[in-house]
Specification:
Blueprint lengths: L11 H12 L8 H8 L3 H21 L12 H17 L4 H13 L11 H13 L3 H11 L6 H17 L3 H4 L12 E6 L2 E7 L3 E7 L4 E2 L4 H6 L1 H31 L5 H8 L5 H4 L4 E6 L2 E8 L2 E3 L12 E3 L7 H14 L17 H6 L10 E3 H10 L15 E8 L4 E11 L4 E13 L2 E4 L7 H18 L13 H11 L5 H13 L9 E3 L3 E5 L4 E5 L5 E4 L3 E3 L18 H14 L7 H8 L3
Antiparallel strand pairs: 1-2, 2-3, 3-4, 5-6, 5-8, 6-7, 9-12, 10-11, 11-12, 12-13, 14-15, 15-16, 16-17, 17-18
Helix pairs in contact: 1-2, 2-4, 3-4, 3-5, 4-6, 5-7, 6-8, 7-8, 7-11, 8-11, 16-17
């Protein structure tokens, strides 16, 4: 039987809302009021019936009761109806929806045969788009779970894009983002299962982990053979819990980072429930929070070890609304104090917060008023740039040697989709696949339309987070980040490579410098390295080396000859890093390698070092 909402009995207001929503054209885009009206009507009852029918059809396809054809389990009209049903259920935050999605999504994401197709790619993506508009952590976790089993090569890529947008949107729905499920963990934050003579334990700390030990004995390295052989059901329960816990932690982490832009405060009781939850506690205890101690007066704290401390390590007892701390609102002294405290205590944050790059308006940007040229005139590897746009939730059209492919503007919506950043770029070289960067502009949405706004009127956190993304695009995809580029390209590109490979530091590189200043004195490199304004100087036995803190490229003294080391895996496991940064890890690993240059046995490196030494 077709799934249709034509016969649903609705009042005049809800019927008008449904008409606008179903049309969804340029001249009649549905807004929040339309969805609220529909969700408050009898359509909510229909939504559950429709999704139950969809789950039953998916199960029938999987069982062979209905014949299988790729992406034919539902018609286009049915996908539209089910998309409306999912949105209404998500908006109402219906308690029955997580279980229903758990039944529906696996049946539409994997073919009942060995084929790499799926019963309804269209409905799977419609559910993902619905969760972007009205996100819940349960919907995000359900999509993450089903992403693992999809066989179609392109579907996981698109789901990853959807999930990033869902996580960011959750930041504007805090009552849902802070909600974590009861997965059966005990008061000590552990879940234990006895399997014969062994005990399996799932714990959540920096990572979700499963460990085994013989009853009363020491921890084992892996799963005991006896458990695999005699207790497969218990093993499956624990492994399934690990998957679910990791999915929820990943969702909460991304939602929290997305919330840095909006800085929406949470009721104290709601925050306490999150910070005391077995899944939330390991996140809360590694993040800095602000509590409102008086109207408009906020104080920063770190909840760790059963107490709350300020940046000096002093106890802080305060009750009030709570929000995530953003360094753009803090003084330089406070930022330094938090970085010192985290480094001294060996706390690695789930995402960059204390060491987060901040971007403030420059005099040049105040002069240009409506746009920023801070990241203009860079040469980027375009395919990498395009992939990074998608990974970071930016929307753009693809450049290329075709009509209209000369230039584009990548956009990202922030702070509850009230603000939008636009990053302009153009196609620079077809054969080398390069893009050239241009202006960054900002827009604000008012009454459903976008209007350009002077940079000085953009909220500091919105400006900083958007510019941080653009800096990331440049830092990761610039040809200056390619240590082998010096042997390729035209003269005009060589000049750019040389300038940017060893030039002034970006905000990201400044943060690396600050981190190295704290980390290196704790290592055996302390007396063999020194930090300058742009370089980490490493004194080896054969030569002295300068590692650029932005590109990680190397010059050798005294003639500044270029040393090409594509990668160096050594050293990173010996140094605590307060945040994840591949370039920082690369710089440290190169420093360890070059400090002991007499022990290098790679002839391609040695020939470069000894030439002219």
């Amino acid at each position: 039987m077709p799934i249709t909402d034509d016969s649903v009995t609705l009042g005049p207001a809800a019927r008008r809302a449904l008409t606008v929503i179903a049309a969804n054209d340029y001249y009649a885009r549905p807004g929040p009021d339309d969805w609220e009206t529909l969700a408050a009507s009898e359509y909510a009852v229909f939504a559950r019936q429709a999704l139950d029918a969809a789950a039953a059809r998916g199960a029938a396809v999987q069982s062979g009761e209905l014949p299988y054809a790729a992406d034919k389990a539902f018609t286009g009209d049915e996908v539209g109806v089910l998309g409306r049903a999912v949105r209404v259920a998500l908006l109402r935050d219906e308690p029955w929806l997580p279980e229903l999605l758990g039944r529906l999504l696996p049946t539409i994401a994997v073919a009942p045969t060995a084929a790499k197709t799926l019963p309804s790619q269209a409905l799977l993506f419609e559910v993902a788009r619905s969760a972007q508009e009205f996100p819940t952590p349960e919907a995000a976790s359900a999509l993450r779970e089903v992403r693992k089993i999809v066989r179609h090569r392109g579907v996981p890529v698109q789901l990853d894009r959807n999930l990033k947008r869902i996580d960011a949107a959750l930041a504007d729905r805090p009552e849902a983002a802070f909600r974590l499920p009861d997965l059966g963990f005990g008061a000590d934050g552990a879940f234990r299962v006895t399997a014969g003579a062994y005990e399996g334990t799932v714990t959540v700390a920096g990572e979700v982990s499963l460990t085994w030990r013989r009853s009363g004995g020491a921890e084992l390295r892996g799963v005991p053979a006896a458990v695999r052989r005699e207790h497969p059901d218990e093993l499956e329960v624990l492994r399934d819990l690990v998957k679910k816990a990791r999915a929820h932690v990943a969702t909460a982490t991304r939602a929290l980072e997305g919330g840095l832009v909006a800085s929406a405060p949470q009721p104290y009781e709601q925050w306490c429930a999150f910070a005391g939850h077995p899944l939330g506690r390991p996140l809360a205890e590694r993040l800095i929070w602000e509590v409102e101690v008086a109207p408009g007066e906020w104080r920063a704290m770190l909840p760790i070890g059963g107490e709350r401390i300020d940046s000096a390590g002093r106890p802080l007892d305060a009750v009030g609304e709570v929000r995530l701390w953003h360094p753009v609102r803090a003084s330089i002294e406070e930022i330094r104090a938090w970085r010192d405290l985290l480094t001294e205590r060996g706390i690695r944050q789930p995402f960059k917060q204390a060491f987060r790059e901040i971007y403030l308006l420059t005099p040049a940007e105040l002069e240009t008023r409506d746009y920023s040229n801070r990241f203009a005139a860079h040469l980027l590897r375009y395919q990498r740039l395009y992939a990074l746009f998608k990974a970071r939730g930016w929307t753009t059209t693809m450049l290329g040697p075709w009509d209209g492919g000369d230039e584009a503007g990548a956009t990202r919506e922030l702070a509850g989709r009230r603000w939008r950043a636009r990053f302009f770029h153009s196609y620079a070289e077809q054969g080398l696949d390069l893009a050239s960067t241009d202006q960054v502009r900002f827009e604000c949405r008012t009454g459903g339309t976008w209007g350009e706004v002077p940079l000085a009127e953009v909220p500091p956190a919105v400006f900083s987070e958007a510019m941080r993304d653009v800096d990331l695009f440049v830092g990761v995809t610039s040809i200056a980040a390619d240590p082998e580029w010096s042997d390729r390209g035209a003269d005009r590109y060589q000049a750019y490579w040389q300038r940017e490979s060893f030039g002034e530091l970006s905000a990201t590189a400044d943060v690396r410098r600050d981190a190295l200043a704290r980390l290196l004195p704790r290592t055996r490199l302390a007396d063999r390295t020194e930090l300058t304004d742009r370089f980490l100087r490493v004194h080896g036995s054969l030569r002295t080396y300068k590692i650029h803190l932005g590109s990680a490229n190397i010059l050798m003294e005294p003639d500044d000859a270029y040393l090409c080391i594509v990668r160096s895996p050594s050293g990173t496991d010996r140094v605590f890093l307060p945040f994840e940064d591949e370039r920082l890890a690369l710089i440290i690993s190169k420093a360890f390698l070059l400090a002991d240059d007499a022990a290098i046995d790679d002839q391609t490196i040695l020939r470069q070092i000894k030439r002219g030494s």
